[in-house]
Amino acid sequence: MSRKVIKSVTNLYDKKIERLAEVPDxxxxxxxxxxxxxxxxxxxxxxxxxxxxxxxxxFTFDKILKNMAHARILRCPHPHAKIRKIDxxxxxxxxxxxxxxxKDNTEKIDWYDGDTFIFDEHLRYQGDEIACVxxxxxxxxxxxxxxxxxxxxxxxxxxxxxxxxxxxxxxxYDWGNISxxxxxxxxxxxxxxxxxxxxxQIIEEEYNxxxxxxxxxxxxxxxxDWNGDHLTIWDSTQGIFAVxxxxxxxxxxxxxxxxxxxxxxxxxxxxxxxxxxxxVMAALLAKRIGRPVRITIDRKEMxxxxxxxxxxxxxxxxxxxxxxxxxALGMTMYGAMGAHRDGAGCQWPLRSLYKCxxxxxxxxxxxxxxxxxxxxxxxxxxxxxxxxxxxxxxxxEKIGMDPIEFRLKxxxxxxxxxxxxxxxxxxxxxxxxxxxxxxxxxxxxxKAGEGxxxxxxxxxxxxxxxxxxxxxxxxxxVKLNRDGSVHVLSGTQDxxxxxxxxxxxxxxxxLEIPVERITVSxxxxxxxxxxxxxxxxxTASSVTPAVYDGALQIKAKLMSGASAxxxxxxxxxxxxxxxxxxxxxxxxxKSIQEVVRETHEQILVATGARxxxxxxxxxxxxxAQFAEVEVNLETGKVKVLKIVAAHDIGRTINRxxxxxxxxxxxxxxxxxxxxxxxxxxxxxxxxxxxNLHNYKMPTxxxxxxxxxxxxxxxxxxxxxxxxxxxxxxxxxxxxGAIANAVYNxxxxxxxxxxxxxxxxxxxVYNIG
Amino acid sequence: MTDFDYIQPTTxxxxxxxxxxxxxxxxxxxxxTDALSLLKNDIYKQHKVxxxxxxxxxxYISFDKTNGLRIGALATISEIGSSxxxxxxxxxxxxxxxxxxxxxxxxxxxxxxxxxxxxRCWYYREDFDCIRKGGGECFAxxxxxKFHCIVGGGPCYIVHPSDMAVALLALDAKVVIHSNNGExxxxxxxxxxxxxxxxxxxxxxxxxxxVKEIQVQPPVKGIKSGYVKFKERDTWDFAVVxxxxxINSTNGIINNVNIAFGGIAPKPWSEKSLNKxxxxxxxxxxxxxxxxxxxxxxxxxxxENAYKVPLVxxxxxxxxxxxVQ
Lengths: 768, 325
Known about the structure:
The complex is a heterodimer. By secondary structure, chain A is of the alpha+beta class.
């Protein structure tokens, strides 16, 4: 099939991302409706399940090579300091220590977009990297860290963003503490001031959200091995090509001299979307000592140095008419990036969820002396949706309208930022089916907190919008062997979501053969065609259409071969379950095995490509979550009884894996709403929650009943598969729905996450 | 973690001997659920680890109606939590044991270890040179203190983390302490010490002393007991506040009650005046609210922990109502 190179344009936040990519020349035939599909949409168990349950799955953390050395990193114990002197003599004298690298014996390598170096003498947070030790084992390496003598010049620090923006605050950079990219970042639509004048009611509120840490089960780790001038990296990563390209640039070696491999991973949530300093350090050490090096970071380092969701202060203003029409939306927000630049905003839910002609936004992204933030499952949308959907509920209450009715009144029919239509938007259907499933009418308190007794119940909801929907470039190679078995190869990766399984399902659907006959191979930059990083809920929506294209090409080759072998024109042939028949004579047939063998091919090979994104339309996923909660006003405890998640996410590819994604996202959302927080002692600038007792992630006992409702079929404007993506939508509305349910149950509005018992008791008992 | 010698005595005498000679440098290991994390996080830098688990005859639960309950220091929390005799006669111990940590930790953790565990204060557990570690300052006092104490604090403001200690205090249990100079038996209340008397230790145990056994008097007829533990997370968490009560009542009127509190003080806490003021009280919500409304009104709360005052009152009220109704 023919190909063309196009410029693929994606609107992502305020960025217009343009990428050249090769795509199929023609639109591929879309899939049938879900009901008529044999493999796609079914709840097939994950094909990597046995490996994982039996313990035979080799994760990066498990990767052991012969003669391997072990590396550990020395990190700064202070929030802000300069290195005066490093003395590694005593550490080097420990038996079993092989090598130590620091700023003194390595070249300066730029990191974090030029904000710093792999080893910087200016240390900007507790956890900043100072040295890396290679030793015969991890214990010796850890012991050596304590023997490295560092003389610091202690600098004054600031770990709170609202303090950091003050003039007399200690500065992290010569540009100050407010990022030049957002000082402020402004957005204006219509006439905001006029919008406020037109309002009958103006609601103004302040919200705060906390820092949270990704804390995936598998810590960040790499094993690296040089063979001559070729470097192989096994990395626990969400983006093998991103790691390859960053490490190549850091080490100034060609990209073809690096192979990055990742087979199985224990989670990332955005913290593993970029190459880590640790991988570069391991590569430097391995080169110097001529041995493979394994580097791991521990749970404390996970909680200090490899990313977090930025916090936020959000001052929101809503102007509304008494009939429910929104006239103005305003937002001033501050978010902390940590010690290096990264996005810390959260304006998009406010800008894109509802119809409102007048919008004004100002965002300040602030540097403070803590670990740098990284994308975390729906960056910005989780913080933003909590606050915005809370104030939307307050506005609805102020004018005496049901929250769902209020949202429907302001339903956006076209995307307001670009004034273009959506490919599909089934949010109304999400409201309808979700409200029915949670029993909205009977369970909703007419007046917040009207229930009797100290233990109160209520329901609340919040909406979701997300980008997702994927795009080129993304490729997949499909290979058909003589025995009819199939190999699918793509340079994307399965970070635990089930990518191996869904790609097999797509090939099975097209070739009409059982999933068991398909092997999927992912996560190798040398062996596989380019596949995208696993982020932005875009893996399924980007890669499944490429597999579909590849499998269709294989099918076309088979049809062509069968036509020659049978002497029947192609349009007189029919393909069914791996056998090609003549329409006129069912006895004239060739199995796909026979076609490969008799045409004297060993393997049929085709590489499929992801189609272009449609232009002039907007692509988003939507959804609404409904929470039923029980709040004990004597203890302040919030118990989530049930979450209904009703979403428009395009095509469901695997119902079981889809539910897994929703369960994970919602439970993580409950952690965000009720439990998790990175706590900092501002006086010393140090983190107090670097273990999993003090950093409280939810356990299974904190997980409620979860009901997942998918209101959508495939969106064939997006691709022939029509999937939008689900990883991030699952977490976006959870905290907002819970906060609104807590208010409905109790009449207490908590505007600072997480909603912990002390905050509820402080309000109930007027403390503080 | 620093290098250490691993010592495995088989008798209490041997263990006590090691501890008498070099107790300051020796970490006692009785299950490891706390000891290991203290070592790994460099809070302890001892170069000897003394494992008690090879000592025979310290893992038992024995009960009879005349002598009461005796639990060996090496009985695991899960053995205590699943003992039918404890459940029947000392429900408060049963409930407290099953609230501790997670099943895996309960399988490893022992009663002696639970009573002697170190505080969970995040300044103590993280890299701060605080008073409890021999430094000059309590960082929680003006820092982040939502989990810290509301009574009994100063100069250090930890809360004692043990659930078993609270339950045993409400039962007026006794602790048998071994030392090579002789055994002594003390009320559990006397095992613990406030920071004003010793800011670096939670117990009065001296080098060479090892908790050997816990004794609880036989249950009085008609007595009821229970334990309520409030935590932020539904499992695998320490108490924000906990309350244990042992109550003797007739027709809804309290004859006598013994209440103990966790999560509010540097040691398991009791308020004798509260116990006294509740006797002869008819148990109903209004009566109790009246009696409890001044409980801890003298609390010296810090910037972030005043919510514990209403919390402890409410938990106490609910527990007493549950036990009598």
